From TrEMBL:
A Pfam family reported for this protein in Swiss-Prot or TrEMBL: PDH_E1_M
Function: Component of the pyruvate dehydrogenase (PDH) complex, that catalyzes the overall conversion of pyruvate to acetyl-CoA and CO(2).
Domain Pyruvate dehydrogenase E1 component middle: 505-725
Gene3D superfamilies noted in UniProt: 3.40.50.920, 3.40.50.970
Residues holding Mg(2+): D252, N282, Q284
This protein's name: Pyruvate dehydrogenase E1 component
Domain Transketolase N-terminal: 159-319
Species of origin: Nocardioides donggukensis
Amino acid sequence: MNDAQSASPQSTGSPVIHEGLPTQLPDIDPEETSEWVESFDAMLEGRGRERARYVMLRLLERAREKQVGVPALRSTDYINTIPPEREPWFPGDEDVERRIRAFLRWNAAVMVSSANRKGLEVGGHIATYQSSASLYEVGFNHFFQGKDAEGGGDQIYIQGHGSPGIYARAYLEGRLTEEQLYRFRQEVQHGVGAGLPSYPHPRLMPEFWEFPTVSMGLTAINSIYQARFNRYLHNRNLKDTSQQHVWAFLGDGEMAEPESLGAIGVAAREELDNLTWVINCNLQQLDGPVRGNGKIIQELESQFRGAGWNVIKVVWGREWDDLLARDVDSVLVNRMNTTPDGAFQTYSVEDGAYIRDSFFGSDQRLRKMVEHMSDEQIRKLPRGGHDYRKVYAAFEAAKQHVGQPTVILAKTIKGWTIDALEGKNATHQMKKLTPDDLKKFRDRLYLPISDRDLERSYEETGAAPFFHPGKDAPEIEYMMERRKALGGAVPRRVDRSSSLKLPGDSAYAALKEGSGKNKVATTMAVVRQLKDWMRDPEIGQRIVPIAPDEYRTFGMDGMFPTAKVYNPGGQRYEAVDRNMLLAYKESAQGQMLHEGISEAGAMASATAAGSAYSTHGEHMIPFYIFYSMFGFQRTGDSIWAMADQLARGFLIGATAGRTTLTGEGLQHADGHSPLLAATNPAVVHYDPAFAYEVSHVMRSGLERMYGDDPEDVIFYVTVYNEPVSQPAEPEDVDVDGILRGMHRVSVADGDGPRVQLMASGIGFPWAEDAARMLAEDWGVQADTWSVTSWNELARDAVSAEEWNLLHPGESPRSAYVTDKLEGATGPVVAVSDYMCAVPLQIARWVPGDYRVLGADGFGFADTRPAARRYFHIDAESVVVQALQALADAGELPREKVVEAFEKYRIEDPTAVSGVTQEGGDA
């Protein structure tokens, strides 16, 4: 006996854990156990391995049905999860639905091909919808609840590249015109709104699309958090969402995105059985196979089962059922299990003789199994995702399943029914169909379009004609009846929300009083404003605080005992800090969303909450607070999608700036988020310096997003962790200036040369100190300006120039920043805790000499004084820059600049090594 044999469990009986099955548990009845083992051995010896395997699988299945806690298998055979004998009765008219799909396939393909006629060529995707038409149509005809359904309707995430098929259906339903289909991807040249966007974009078609989905991976995570938010609304008694279901259509290649699979544990942990994913496994991504040497369906099954999902595989169409019934030796199943996806893709383009020889020819038993079939019948053996009975059975099982989210893995062929595209690696990039291609396609779909009609259409329009059987055709009547029964057309976006009564002046009074002798960071000012809002009887319960494991970081732990952290299971343990005043407290009715270390998840929650006014008819106010560096830099794509979804709410970039959180080092040092925010047209960014500015900014955001005439914008407010003295609001405060981007804080009243100092956020105290030093040490008078938004000033200026371009015969408009600085004496010096490019946005419109100081480069760990000296943005650096500007203008001798430079040593961080700082942590 060799070492391997002596170490084997069979020979020694040593306890092991094999694939999640523990064997070292105490045996309370060894005799009974022995009888079971002997019985199994006898079956194995007498009936063989395949029979023993089958019986074991049935026992595991039975254990699952009886809720015996046996670990699930990581994957099952490469066959349908639902056997034929368990398929439900299909309630639809199969012939009518087949014809409907033919109409849709044709119109979707013609739409894209037409968009790529010579002289236009705007792109598009034909193959994705062709592979998934049956998946969608089973949903449209039998499952998707519209907005008029009891309970409010389902939320349906359409795969982005499948949009032509959805437009094709809307055309048959009378929701879109033939002219609009011809204008696919032509959104402005025929008049704004006269064409159709390429993908599901609610911002471009706000009455049609509900969820933007073409950014790969975001559909997955957003749908999970949408289903979770539905439960959040329900558990907090804000809306009954018990009859609403979330459907998300995804691609198998898309599963490679980290966002696709990164949050599936959340869905399982919270038992989101209101969520179904349908993954279109056509085995192809853009350039080739998804898993050429592997099996993507098996891989995904293993991942989802391991995460705790209910998995339904729809691999084979009904024509395979008879073959599988004959597979008494499991030789066919074994062949299916061991054939890689790359081979299956080859079979999708080869003839039946090739498939007979390559797939069935490896074993005489397989050859015999198909000897009664012609080569053509073998070639046409279908994949399950194209069989509406199989798909219906999967959808029905998903809707009925309780306690787990469901994923349906449906095997299809990319470009199915179009001979020119079907299964080819280049299918995704193929945009055009020739007249001959279309004739073959027409014949395969049995459409009554003559060659003459095709040719005439090409002569007149350069493209094939769309097909509509007439509004009184039985297929159209069937479609309309089914949608009426299910609650109306989908997709469809509506806003049924009621206006909110917003807080009055008293809710903002505290921040306007100033901090007296205390020092308060603007992060704390924002949190104080949030707490005051949450006490409001009208909007308090509609606020959704969101943080990725950082509530304590931002001083929000005081909300734990009252608002509580949302957990659908409540709190089933005694908290370690239960005897403390600010104990961590979870509740099924909790208001605070604690997302763990997942900024992507937090953004998905913010998106779901911020669009609840349209998805649910209920205004919800997301308040997502995060380390500033981990907002736009890490999840900018999600924020873009949030804007596309027309969501509203507050994003709070706390610990902003490159030098306020320097102890954390490079990765936490945000010197550029305003620039990233500026790239998103829906984001309104403010960088307030004072608590009273915070109050006006937050009030403006609430009124603009949730007032009587709400705007589809997102307020991004950057705040800081450094405590500073907060002045009371001046009686003559320029509120309009605060909201438009800048206001003058102080005017120097002495004699001598003058400069204008502009600063934002935590940079204002440097400007303030610099103004004092300039007056006391150098005889220079400085006015100070608080810039609450460099971005809004720049946008206003660009808007003014655009207006002038389009109105050449009228009096030109000027930029707000130009108007504010007109008449101000002296050069302008701007400073912020961001890179120079942030204040340089307005350089073109600043009258006179404009100098900028900023924190360009990577951050690092040190004290704030050292970091600010290193970046040359501290008060001393502002002084030297102001003196240099005056010297360049001939108002001061250059020797003064040299004197100041040598006095302050602004090039030397060691000069401030002994300067202390306050509140250095987050």
